[in-house]
Amino acid sequence: MKKLFIIFSALILLAAAGCNNAERNSSDGSDSIAPTTDSTENSSADAEHSNNEPGSPGELTVLTDTVMQYFDVAACGTDDGLYYMDPPRIGSGGSYLYYIDYATKQEIYVCPDSACTHNNERCVSYFDGSEFSTKYSKLFVYGESLFYLSLSYHESDGAVSTSYGGAGGGGTLWQMNLDGTDRRCVFTFDDELTVESFAACDGEKLWFVVSTPELGYNAQTQMYWSYLKDMAVIGVSISDHKVVDRLPLPNDERTAFYRIEGCAGDKFIFTATEYPEGVTKQDVFGLWAERDLSIPFTETTEQDIKTDEIEARSSKVYYTLDRATGDFSELYRYPYNTFFTNSVRFDDKIYLMQPDSAVTIDVKSGTVSEGALTAAEGYDVKGIFGDMYLCSSLSDPDDRAAYFIDPDTGVVGKTELRSNKYPEDTIVSDVAAIGREYVLIRTGEIAIPNKHLGIAGYYYEYAVEKLDDFFGGKDALETVRIIPKG
């Protein structure tokens, strides 16, 4: 299935000799997480659920995706279901790993012990909060294993704050069976590195993006600011989990905000901001740190004027990094203040959308063209929904429907159903993941009380619907049932 991947920015790592609590096994040796229910169908998280199969050597495939990214939880969608970590709960000390099976409409703990009540640290699905973090972390399926990229801290280019959170924070990579058993740490990133929430594969290596954070400080405003340097894409051998490749990005002082956008063929795709001659990113970030925060952002300061002037002379640039040769090449640039309504990835192309046209960047050939997308003419492309364009109407401002357009055949459906949480939006805003035949929708949330802290967190409620019904605008949601034991 084609997916939209929106990703991030880049140095070097250390292979893990071992981690605390590196293994967690099931209590009964079972190899299935199928619950025992009165249903004739059982939920299971075995290999057939994964659509993230290894690519052939040299062909890059992004493993991490954007499902659940706005809920601050780690998640991984497959054709037939969704793995996800519940949101970290204040005072609880940890999170649990769940699997939602679309066909059976069941949500289960990823634990094979049929007698487990899933309420203690011995449960296979439990992840201790002191060892695992969910906010910047990622789950992904590769082959017949589930991986958990645990990232405890996330430094970023141009971050300005009144306190310094420390170095990059590093992270760990954990591998387990698809039923959660045999969890083990297979790789450790150096604590001084920032590790992005991204992973890709080429059939032989797993690829990650890392960098080194640097710190600046303005004594007058007592503001810290940070930037990233020594960015690189690192290849880790699948067979022995050792670093076997390092592809550095240029350390250009005029270039900031490197962000990895995905892969195409044997190339990684990055975007960045390039400042004009004579201006470095330290100059710009330093201006931000000089700003008096007691002045509302609705008012213009001297620093704002200088920043605006710099941005007016700056560029946004797309680059490719060749996995085979390490060549870092410019693909396309445009003035920083150019207005695009959206940018979307679809197969090997990037579309920079404007109200009635698009700039189309073909990553593999390196060609750029401008003009309306034929299948979506008359529509504003908002993004990618599975293998469809997700659009709104350009011709009728009162039309609040979401349209689904096949790039080859045109409009295949629309929905006017409204979001449960944001009634001004369509139900598309509530979509958590898209499978081969079903769409998963978050229908609500239940507060978890805490006698000392008020609200400790939330449970989310879900429903599934056949894609054909969803594209037809039908309200045919079926509630996902939580299986509390087994």
What is the C-alpha radius of gyration, as a whole number of Å? 23 Å
Low-confidence stretches: 1-56
Shape designation:
globular
| Biggest sheet overview | 7 strands, antiparallel
- Number of domains as seen in the coordinates: 2
Q: Which structural class fits the helix and strand makeup?
A: mainly beta
Structure summary, number of beta strands: 33
Distance between the termini: 31 Å
Helical proportion, percent range: under 10%
Please work out how many helical segments DSSP would assign: 3
Mean pLDDT: 81
Instruction: Tell me the CATH topology of the largest domain.
Output: Neuraminidase
Beta-strand residue fraction: 35-45%
CATH class of the largest domain: Mainly Beta
Describe the structure.
The protein is mainly beta. The chain has 2 domains: 358 residues, Neuraminidase (6 Propeller), CATH 2.120.10; 74 residues, Thrombin, subunit H, CATH 2.40.10. The chain contains 3 helices and 33 strands. Strands 1, 9, 12, 13, 14, 15 and 16 form a 7-stranded antiparallel β-sheet that branches. Strands 2, 3, 4, 5, 6 and 33 form a 6-stranded mixed β-sheet that branches. A hairpin with a 6-residue loop joins strand 10 and strand 11. It is globular, with a radius of gyration of 23 Å. The N terminus is likely disordered.
